[in-house]
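TA notes, week 10

Several of you asked for a full example with nothing omitted. So below is the full record: structure tokens for the whole chain, then the designed sequence directly under it. When grading your own attempts, check the secondary structure regions first.
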């Protein structure tokens, strides 16, 4: 228990001593003063809990002292007890209460009474101070809590703003994802549509180009007529180029590896990649200018980069950086053939993946994204490109630190040197065929069939016609002889590739040329390196294909 200060004021030392003896049981701090002046000195220096004042003092009586004490702001509520042997009448008591006393103790003093009264006021003082302290602490806590609530309210407002921003952002991302899905579906639809259109359109161009070429050879020497025919041929050739661009847009072309300058390729698609990842993602690159060229399909490599950048964007929800590096690598993953390789790495500092996810990341249709947010084919396509290009892929990722996808792709020079051993050239080229040949033309389109027959007749050959694969098989079943077969691929009932397989089984030495209005031709039916032509073809291309087919026949013989 904290002791409190009790001031004893009396001009007689003996009385002060008696007060002290009586009150020492309370174990409080007793302060003695023999005059009003001395009492005020203690009051100004010390915090006083209870004051005992003698009424009759020579210089200044107790009434005057108490009146002066009450005028001080600090002691307006301090308990003051009068001690007196005289002036105990009722008017004297009323006067004492009027100037500020709270109680009277008469002399002779009863010790128990004095101690009891002083104890009550001392405890009241302590409890009052404790209450004041608690009130102060409460006010401080209320102030602190108010500040915390204001801070929380500010944080809540900020979180609400961030939440609204993230909702808007997620809404935009979802709309972008839906737009991308729509674009992918539209692209797939265009791919199927352009495949069919390309076949029909190329058949029309085949008839147009073939007829115009033959007509040009038969025109009299007329500069104007020749100019008009040449203009028509150029327009048809532009139609051919347009068809090829449509097929390239729909990604319906087969893989065409070529020497690629990776730095130039990346600079060409950097704007597209920046739009794909958005403004919150920074693109960094470290690609040396003297990097050796890659042997890869440039269009597919661009698509692979786009897939990797989209994956990195999805991992960088709060923004970040995607870094592209390229360098010659002597160390390479197991399973790669000997030779020189370039390592291309795409790294992000996003959320990363755990080990189990990394192991399945390249599996087709595996995705960690929500329903409708990903097909799981992005890394599968990149993996397929790397494998088909003679390279490899490696994925390293740490949860919370980011992901790095590395592609090892062969250097163009190493594969260029290896090609002569696989495809040896003959010592002496075979001269073009000069004799007339019996040639079977198989095509379900009458216009194309007529144009091809006309070009063959113009070359001095003896063409025969078949409108379907079944008619062609009937032709051979009838025992008719044939030196060469030129067949369309996309035909109802039986395709040209299936017809070629039947003919190869029945007549192993019979050359077959497969023609199609599609840019890509199927690698099925076990046909291997069968000669192929893409419609529309010119008479010169037809002659070259026939020479090649008959050269293979001579080599086989």
């Amino acid at each position: 228990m904290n002791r409190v200060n009790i001031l004893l004021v009396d001009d007689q030392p003996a009385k002060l001593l008696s007060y002290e003896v009586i009150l020492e049981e309370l174990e409080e701090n007793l302060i003695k003063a023999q005059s009003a002046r001395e009492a005020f000195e203690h009051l100004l220096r010390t915090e006083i809990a209870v004051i005992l004042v003698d009424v009759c003092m020579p210089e200044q009586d107790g009434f005057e002292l108490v009146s002066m004490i009450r005028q001080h702001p600090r002691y307006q509520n301090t308990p003051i007890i009068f001690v007196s042997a005289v002036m105990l009448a009722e008017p004297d008591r009323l006067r004492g209460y009027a100037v500020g006393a709270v109680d009277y103790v008469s002399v002779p003093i009863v010790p128990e009474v004095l101690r009891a009264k002083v104890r009550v006021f001392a405890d009241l003082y302590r409890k009052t101070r404790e209450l004041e302290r608690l009130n102060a602490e409460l006010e401080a806590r209320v102030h602190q809590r108010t500040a915390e609530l204001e801070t929380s309210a500010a944080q809540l407002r900020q979180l609400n703003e961030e939440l609204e921003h993230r909702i808007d952002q997620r809404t935009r991302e979802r709309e972008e994802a839906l737009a991308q899905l729509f674009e992918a579906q539209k692209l797939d639809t265009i791919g199927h549509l352009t495949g069919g259109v390309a076949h029909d359109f190329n058949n029309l161009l085949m008839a147009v180009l073939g007829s115009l070429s033959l007509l040009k050879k038969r025109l009299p020497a007329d500069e104007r007529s020749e100019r008009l025919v040449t203009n028509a041929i150029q327009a048809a050739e532009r139609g051919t180029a347009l068809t090829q661009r449509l097929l390239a847009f729909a990604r319906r072309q087969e893989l065409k590896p070529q020497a690629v300058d990776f730095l130039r390729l990346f600079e060409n698609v950097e704007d597209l990649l920046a739009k794909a990842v958005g403004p919150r993602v920074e693109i960094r690159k470290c690609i040396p200018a003297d990097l050796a060229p890659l042997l890869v399909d440039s269009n597919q490599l661009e698509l692979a980069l786009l897939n990797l950048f989209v994956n990195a964007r999805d991992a960088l929800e709060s923004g970040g950086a995607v870094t592209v590096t390229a360098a010659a690598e002597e160390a390479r993953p197991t399973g790669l053939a000997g030779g020189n390789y370039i390592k291309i790495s795409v790294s992000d500092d996003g959320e990363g993946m755990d080990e189990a996810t990394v192991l399945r990341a390249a599996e087709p249709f595996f995705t960690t994204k929500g329903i409708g947010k990903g097909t799981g084919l992005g890394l599968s396509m990149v993996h397929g490109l790397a494998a088909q290009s003679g390279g490899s892929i490696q994925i390293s990722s740490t949860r919370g630190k980011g992901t790095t996808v590395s592609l090892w792709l062969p250097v163009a020079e190493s594969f260029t040197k290896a090609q002569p051993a696989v495809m040896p050239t003959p010592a002496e080229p075979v001269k073009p065929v000069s004799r007339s040949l019996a040639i079977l033309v198989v095509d379900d389109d009458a216009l194309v069939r007529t144009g091809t027959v006309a070009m063959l007749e113009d070359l001095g050959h003896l063409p025969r016609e078949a409108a379907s694969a079944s008619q062609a098989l009937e032709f051979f079943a009838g025992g008719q002889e044939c030196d060469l077969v030129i067949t369309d691929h996309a035909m109802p009932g039986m395709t040209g590739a299936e017809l070629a397989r039947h003919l190869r089984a029945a007549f192993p030495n019979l050359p077959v040329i497969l023609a199609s209005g599609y840019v890509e031709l199927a690698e099925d039916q076990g046909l291997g390196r069968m000669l192929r032509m893409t419609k529309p073809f010119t008479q010169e291309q037809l002659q070259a294909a026939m020479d090649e087919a008959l050269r293979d026949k001579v080599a086989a013989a």
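Residues 256 and 297 are 5 Å apart (CA to CA). Use that as a sanity check on your answer.
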